[in-house]
Sequence to fold (229 residues):
Amino acid sequence: MTALLAGVLMMPAPAQAAPISPTQLNAADMLLFNGVRQAGLWEIPAGQMAADRGSGDKVRNVGTMIAEQHVQLDQLVVDAANQLGASIPSTPTAEQQGWLTEMQNASGARFDQIFVTRLRAAHGKIFPVIGAVRASTRNPVVRKLADQANVFVMNHMQMLESTGMVQYEKLPPAALPPAQDTSGLAIAEANTGIAPPVSMLTLWIVVLLAVGVGGITGLRVLRGRFRSA
Fold:
């Protein structure tokens, strides 16, 4: 185990790729691997700190469970990386290390609030990554990891909320993706990559004119055939 901060341990050790030829993974697949791995690398020591320094039993119990469960999830991502020959991080990000420093410098009720707020926000950020990769990955190992990670993340969100310390009134508005237009015209535009240069009204007028011209042309052809007969 490698020391991250004084008195805080980080575990387990980085994954070592087992296959000789690594499986081809796309950027989204690796985003899931890296995100889950780095979550464990900072949330394990964060949970350990909460277990030792939480001001009440609730926070200490939640910290203990989150640390223990992240050890399990971390082993799952290590095993998946080994199976696919993927290289994953061995240290948290600079931002995550800053959160650990912030927690280490706090105590009492302030420590509890930082622990709950930081971890809940981090879990909320990994949620859309899990969903997007789960929906699009072509790799069954990655898909299974997304399923497993989703269970842990939801459980941890609920545990953090059970402390009663989530400040919902201070949460920023959700950043929702833009609504998708699934009409036939929108699908056609997406397939061609070309947007119509005219309005919908103009398009309908053109269509109606085309139908009218086609009908007139058809009648003329039929008349010509009757006369020749």
